[in-house]
């Protein structure tokens, strides 16, 4: 059997973080199997396994089939070794969830917000909800390994600070990680909400897909890009900002970003609601529009399909540029999936080359509104369970 080349031949518990990477696939293995996989000495593997067992990151998982004598014990990654809080914040809604270390949601709370009230009000509510979820699940504060937050605007991922977010007055350059970190006592990672939706959808439903685009259509429009199986943020974290690409029929329609003719200005939920109102049809808001379209209202369904066509023109360019295998569409307006997707598919399949669309799937999100919180948790999990972070945690525990 070939060895795993990334594992270094160092001795002792050093290298336990690298060994853990083998176990994150969830497959139970014996110590003997780990020795064969890594090519490392029995004593080296033993020290690393013992360190991971002491930290609770590995746990016994039954016995392997016996080849004579006592059956060898199996070990597996322990997803209950800690918990993560993931928060998906939109312009008017929030979903906060508590997950295990596999990103499985164990408790959640949804509530209405107004993102324009500013960071203190919104983030204090998130922190209170997180504490309530921990308490309700019977988990201690020291079991919280991290918090992930998705925001509906551009974010400098390295600092977790929003950058000139169009619909978030008072949030520009606000230190979100410090605010939440002080309130919950755990590391905090922040990203754009649609990036995290892409990460969550990919981790949950399309783990084996290398190239994927997740499109959120709600108050705004944005995309998260999975390239080579990893989230692609771009140089400054602005990759996938589809909402402010010029729309084919955008004309001089003003946009919240200060420009005119943006895709968001003509194809977002509020834009479609406004267009219908000008025709004497008052859907109220995006939720009302979705209900009208789903109930068979021809004008609403037609307007949503037109929005899908506008989005499709922009996505056709993305397909030619990125050649994804899957385009998943989520967000509030995507709940009228039949009409919206019909418009998107019509244009993308009609405008893009057959080579790029022959096996392309354009589908509704399959995570039932949980892509954002799962992605937020996945972002944290990938960080805290990386080899480097596990090594740091074990070293700190040993020193303490």
What would a concise description of this structure say?
This protein has helices spanning 16-23, 31-38, 42-54, 119-136, 176-184, 193-205, 263-267, 269-278, 286-294, 298-322, 337-351, 354-357, 371-384, 387-399, and strands at 29-30, 58-63, 73-77, 83-89, 93-99, 105-112, 144-151, 155-156, 161-162, 188-192, 212-217, 221-227, 230-232, 326-330, 361-364. The protein has 400 residues and is an alpha/beta fold.
Folded structure, characterized:
With 400 residues, the chain is an alpha/beta fold. The protein folds into three domains: 16-80, Arc Repressor Mutant, subunit A (Orthogonal Bundle); 81-192 and 372-399, Nucleotidyltransferase, domain 5; 197-368, ATPase, nucleotide binding domain (Nucleotidyltransferase, domain 5), CATH 3.30.420.40. It is 41% helix and 19% strand. It is built from 14 helices and 15 strands. The protein has helices spanning 16-23, 31-38, 42-54, 119-136, 176-184, 193-205, 263-267, 269-278, 286-294, 298-322, 337-351, 354-357, 371-384, 387-399, and strands at 29-30, 58-63, 73-77, 83-89, 93-99, 105-112, 144-151, 155-156, 161-162, 188-192, 212-217, 221-227, 230-232, 326-330, 361-364. Strands 6-5-4-7-10 form a five-stranded mixed sheet, with helices on both faces. A five-stranded mixed sheet has the order 13-12-11-14-15, with helices on both faces. A hairpin with a 3-residue loop joins strand 11 (212-217) and strand 12. The longest helix has 25 residues, at 298-322. The two termini are 38 Å apart. 46% of the residues are buried. Mean pLDDT is 92; it is low at 1-12.
């Amino acid at each position: 059997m070939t060895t795993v080349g990334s594992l270094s031949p160092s001795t002792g518990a050093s290298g336990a973080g690298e060994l853990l990477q083998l176990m994150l696939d969830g497959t139970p293995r014996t110590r003997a199997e780990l020795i064969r996989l890594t090519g490392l000495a029995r004593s080296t593997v033993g020290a690393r396994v013992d360190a991971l067992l002491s930290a609770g990151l590995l746990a016994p998982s039954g016995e392997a089939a016996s080849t004579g004598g006592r059956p060898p014990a199996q070990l597996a990654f322990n997803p209950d070794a800690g918990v993560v809080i993931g928060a998906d914040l939109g312009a008017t809604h929030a979903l906060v969830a508590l997950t295990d270390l596999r990103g499985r949601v164990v408790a959640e709370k949804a509530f209405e917000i107004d993102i324009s009230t500013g960071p203190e009000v919104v983030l204090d509510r998130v922190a209170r909800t997180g504490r309530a979820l921990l308490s309700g699940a019977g988990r201690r504060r020291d079991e919280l390994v991290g918090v992930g937050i998705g925001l509906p605007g551009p974010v400098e991922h390295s600092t977790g600070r929003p950058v000139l977010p169009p619909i978030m007055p008072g949030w520009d350059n606000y230190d979100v990680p410090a605010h939440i970190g002080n309130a919950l006592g755990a590391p905090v990672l922040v990203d754009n909400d649609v990036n995290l939706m892409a990460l969550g959808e990919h981790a949950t439903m399309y783990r084996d897909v290398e190239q994927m685009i997740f499109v959120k259509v709600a108050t705004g429009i944005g995309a998260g890009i999975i390239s080579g199986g990893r989230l692609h943020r771009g140089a400054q974290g602005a990759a996938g900002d589809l909402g402010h690409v010029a729309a084919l029929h955008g004309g001089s329609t003003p946009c919240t970003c200060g420009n005119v003719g943006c895709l968001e200005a003509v194809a977002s939920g509020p834009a479609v609601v406004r267009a219908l109102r000008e025709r004497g049809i008052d859907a109220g808001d995006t939720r009302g529009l979705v209900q009208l379209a789903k109930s068979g209202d021809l004008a609403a369904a037609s307007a949503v399909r037109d929005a899908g066509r506008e989005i499709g023109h922009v996505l056709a360019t993305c397909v030619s540029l990125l050649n994804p295998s899957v385009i998943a569409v989520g967000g509030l307006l995507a709940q009228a999936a039949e009409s919206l997707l019909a418009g998107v598919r019509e244009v993308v399949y009609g405008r893009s080359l057959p080579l790029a669309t022959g096996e392309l799937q354009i589908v509704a999100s399959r995570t039932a509104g949980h892509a954002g919180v799962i992605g937020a948790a996945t972002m944290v999990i990938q960080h805290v369970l990386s080899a480097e972070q596990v090594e740091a945690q074990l070293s700190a525990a040993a020193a303490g």
